[in-house]
Design brief:
The complex is a heterodimer of chains A (191) and B (172). Helices cover 38% and strands 17% of the residues of chain A. Chain A is of the alpha/beta class. In chain A, helix 7 links the parallel strand 6 and strand 7. In chain A, helix 1 crosses helix 2 and helix 1 packs parallel to helix 7. The longest helix of chain A is centred in the N-terminal third of the chain and has 11 residues. Chain A starts with a helix and ends in a 5-residue tail after the last helix. By secondary structure, chain B is α/β, with parallel strands linked by helices. In chain B, strands 2-1-3-4-6-5 form a six-stranded parallel β-sheet, sandwiched between helices. Chain B is globular and about 45 Å long. In chain B, strand 5, helix 7 and strand 6 form a beta-alpha-beta unit. Chain B starts with 5 loop residues before the first helix and ends in a 7-residue tail after the last helix. Chain B contains eight helices and six strands; from the N terminus they run αβαβαβααβαβαβα. Classes of the chains: A alpha/beta (191), B alpha/beta (172).
Chain lengths: 191, 172
């Protein structure tokens, strides 16, 4: 089953735990996340393509009691595939990497990504040493994934197949310093 | 060359500065320091597949309230450039300790282009650059670099000169 990206994101962060920290990727997943409701515990990315999973790793190591969810697109993940290898070696207990896979570079005109032809990100993640890899098949699977984000326990990778259509952009705060400061403040850290 | 054990001193500075995450790409010049970091119970030493991962790692660490640093060789600087936009745009502290190749007594010409580009390229990325040539200067410079990185939330690169590391011996 292919999901509507906005509905899928809304399901994942509905009634979110106060301990859920979310790092979306550059582009559509950032717009999807803010469309589902702004939250200071979101670290929106307007750049740093290929960096979302590694930002998630640094955050997960620093906050081991909280669930960290990287929710990014297939193109962003493909730019940083080495991060899956690094995460596989580190085995952080509280990190989830979720890829919204539409097989497209939606922001740049819908060019096909590698996942549309030969590349299967689930196989890559499994090969990197992330044992718990989930291909989300249906609405029940998506709800089960959302339930897992309420607990900090377990490293996993999930792929959510996404319909090709691009919904209108919803833009979050653009000033990186502001996004950073409010995130740290929400964790009780000095801004 | 003096007998100062600069890698151990640099490790001591990282410890005193409460650095908890150290990203690195394996490098001969940093081998002693990497070994100290990987065996320390309070530090997470994170082996990276490419240096830019370490820039993103440090951003995530800071978001979560931890201090991170990045160890690499000069060739790795080129791999970091775009990701340093993240550090600069969001003002994430990004201390980098870079062992230099491609300058003093370099045998391998393939190291020269990136080695020579390190300083100008990092300057363009708005990094503060501190160069160290003598072993007994490493600890003091490292301390200043970390203060500047965490205190002013900026990119600070400490360039550890090739004289300090010694030349790579190519014959067995």
């Amino acid at each position: 089953m292919k999901f509507d990206r906005r509905a899928a994101m809304a399901t994942l962060v509905a009634d979110r735990s106060k301990d859920l920290l979310v790092v979306p990727g550059l582009g559509s997943t950032t717009w999807d996340l803010v469309a589902a409701g702004d939250n200071p515990k979101n670290f929106y990315l307007w750049g740093a393509m290929g960096g979302a999973a590694m930002i998630g790793l640094g955050l997960a190591l620093a906050q081991p009691q909280k669930r960290v969810a990287v929710i990014t697109g297939d193109g962003e993940m493909l730019m940083g595939l080495g991060a899956l290898a690094t995460i596989g070696v580190q085995q952080p207990k509280n990190l989830a990497v979720i890829v919204f896979d539409n097989g497209l570079y939606g922001e740049t005109g819908g060019q096909p990504s590698h996942t549309q032809s030969t590349v299967d990100l689930l196989t890559v993640a499994r090969g990197a040493g992330i044992a718990d890899c989930i291909d989300v098949a249906d609405e029940a699977g998506l709800k089960a994934l959302a339930a897992r984000l309420k607990s900090p326990d377990g490293l996993f990778f999930a792929r959510v197949a996404i319909e090709a259509k691009e919904p209108p952009r919803v833009l979050p705060e653009r000033d990186g310093v502001v996004i950073k400061k409010r995130f740290r403040e929400a964790l009780g850290l000095s801004a | 060359m003096s007998n100062v054990n600069w890698p151990d001193q640099l490790f001591g500075v990282l410890k005193r500065s409460d650095v908890r995450q150290v990203g690195y790409v394996p490098d001969a010049g940093h081998s002693r320091l990497i070994q100290r970091c990987t065996t320390d119970s309070e530090m997470q030493a994170v082996s990276l597949t490419t240096e830019e991962e370490g820039v993103a790692l440090a951003a995530g660490a800071w978001l979560g309230g931890e201090r991170a640093a990045l160890l690499m060789q000069s060739s790795g600087v080129g791999n970091c450039i775009n990701m340093l936009s993240l550090s600069r745009t969001c003002r994430f502290p990004m201390p980098m300790f870079i062992t230099m190749r491609g300058e003093w007594e370099e045998f391998n010409p393939w190291q020269v282009p990136m080695g020579q580009a390190v300083e100008p390229v990092l300057k363009l990325c708005d990094a503060e650059i501190m160069r160290v040539k003598k072993p007994d200067e490493v600890a003091g410079v490292a301390e200043r670099a970390l203060q500047s990185a965490y205190g002013d939330e900026r990119i600070v690169a400490v360039l550890l000169s090739q004289e300090l590391i010694g030349k790579k011996v190519w014959t067995k």
